Structure formats: structure tokens, C-alpha cells
């Protein structure tokens, strides 16, 4: 019994201040974890408490109704010019597509230094527009190449089996 006490005393005397702090911190963490697990197992949450808490929270439906009512009260009165602009603002898809113009920056000089192209911008005539006479047409996709590829793969699988 004396040898065990001697060993414990020699062990404790060999520890430094940092070792004591580390062991003390680990002991506190173990106590906190055990008490947290105990509290979680012993406490129960009633459904009534949850329903009572929900009534205190923000109700989004009421807020949406209030905002829509305020919007109806605060209608903006448009002038004649603004009404005319609203009516003219809607354009057809063809008009939109036909109004597309490519814009191009104009350059005065162009130099190539090794792999870098250096261009001097013409500030007097900065941008020019190129009209495209091509009509934009919606093209449908064809999968003929993919279908042929799949057929070839199926044949290959049959040959390998």
C-alpha cells in the first residue's frame, strides 16, 4: 500500500503546471457533459408549450395581407405621358429580335508584342454598330448522331456478351 502511495506522489510531483491545467479542464468538461445528458433525459417538452410559442411568432399571412392592403391604398397616379409609355412599352418578339445590333469597338492602331495584342481605341468614333441581316430562327435539335451512337453501343455490347 505504501508503494502505491509513493508512486502516486512521485507521479503528481513530476507533472508541470500545464499538465495540472489540462487535467482540470478535462475533468470540468466531463462533468459538464454528464450534467447536460442528465438534463436532456429528465426534461420533456409539452406540445402545449410549443403551440403557445407559435402564437407569439411572426405570422407571415397577416403580413402579406397588410402589405397588399397598403399597396391598394397607395396606388400611383400616372400622368398622360407615363400612361402612353406604359402602353407602348410592350413589343413583339420579332421586333425585339430584329432590333439586335452587334456593337463593335473601333481601334486606331494594333500592335503585337510577343503573345500580347495591344490595340489603341479610337475615342472619336468609339462604337460602331453592325446590322445583321440574318433572321433568328428557332432551330429544333436533332439527335440522329446520338441515336446512331447508341445503336452502335448496343451492337458492341451484344458482341461482347
Structure overview:
By secondary structure, this protein is an alpha+beta fold. About 60% of the residues lie in helices and about 15% in strands. It is built from seven helices and four strands. The chain has helices at about 1-15, 15-40, 45-55, 60-75, 80-90, 95-100, 145-160, and strands at about 100-105, 105-115, 115-120, 125-130. A two-stranded antiparallel ribbon has the order 1-4. It has a two-stranded antiparallel sheet with strand order 2-3. The longest helix is centred in the first third of the chain and has 26 residues, at about 15-40. The mean pLDDT is about 80.
In terms of per-residue confidence, which ranges show pLDDT below 50 for 5 or more consecutive residues? none
Largest sheet: 2 strands, antiparallel
What percent of residues are in strands? 5-15%
Number of strands: 4
Which structural class matches the secondary elements? alpha+beta
Overall average pLDDT: 78
Shape: extended
What level of helicity do the residues show? Answer: 55-70%
Radius of gyration: 40 Å
- Spatial strand order of the main sheet: 1-4
Measured between the Cα atoms of the first and last residue, the distance is 78 Å
SSE topology string: HHHHHHEEEEH
Provide a count of the helices: 7
List the helices and strands and how they pair.
Blueprint: H1 2-14, H2 17-42, H3 47-56, H4 60-73, H5 80-88, H6 93-98, E1 101-105, E2 107-113, E3 116-121, E4 127-131, H7 144-160
Antiparallel strand pairs: 1-4, 2-3
Amino acid at each position: 500500500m505504501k508503494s502505491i502511495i509513493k508512486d502516486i506522489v512521485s507521479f503528481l510531483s513530476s507533472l508541470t503546471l500545464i499538465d495540472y491545467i489540462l487535467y482540470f479542464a478535462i475533468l470540468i468538461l466531463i462533468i459538464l457533459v454528464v450534467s447536460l445528458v442528465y438534463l436532456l433525459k429528465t426534461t420533456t417538452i409539452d406540445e402545449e408549450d410549443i403551440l403557445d410559442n407559435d402564437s407569439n411568432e411572426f405570422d407571415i399571412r397577416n403580413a402579406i395581407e397588410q402589405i397588399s392592403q397598403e399597396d391598394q391604398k397607395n396606388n400611383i397616379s400616372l400622368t398622360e405621358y407615363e400612361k402612353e409609355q406604359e402602353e407602348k412599352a410592350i413589343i413583339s418578339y420579332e421586333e425585339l429580335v430584329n432590333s439586335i445590333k452587334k456593337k463593335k469597338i473601333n481601334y486606331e492602331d494594333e500592335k503585337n508584342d510577343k503573345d500580347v495584342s495591344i490595340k489603341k481605341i479610337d475615342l472619336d468614333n468609339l462604337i460602331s454598330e453592325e446590322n445583321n441581316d440574318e433572321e433568328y430562327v428557332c432551330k429544333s435539335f436533332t439527335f440522329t448522331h446520338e441515336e446512331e451512337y447508341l445503336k452502335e453501343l448496343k451492337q458492341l455490347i451484344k458482341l461482347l456478351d
